[in-house]
Amino acid sequence: MDFPLSIPFVEAMGFELLRMQDGEAEIALTLRPDQRNSLNMAHGGVTMTLLDVTMAHAARSADVSAAAPPGRLGRGIITVEMKTTFMRPGVGRLTARGRVLSRTLTLAFCEASLLDEAGVLVAHATGSFKYLTRAAADGRRVRGSGGD
Q: What CATH number has the domain spanning 8-135?
């Protein structure tokens, strides 16, 4: 399944969108050598990015308040905060499963788990995400982003 939006960084990482609907998302990655650390396991930045993107996609799939044309998502979303716990080394093919725990009109509170090929928990994250207005999503200034 292709990503519904062009996210050059995500595409360069090689993420594979498996599912995105009803406040849930699942994204997989087969680790490349350049995504590993010196111990030959998933670099922490790769792990965190995979969890972050998965939670954001879960949040976007739950955004029923924004009408969108067929084939497009509604409002944009940005990460407000994220906490990640690393439990064991990530190797091989990794799959992140995320879901919305709660949401308001402007925020989504999410969690995601990262599993290895055997289904063993590698890492877990929670995060808060802010829905953007259409103007902000189109690249205009985001009110309250530090420049106001």
A: 3.10.129.10
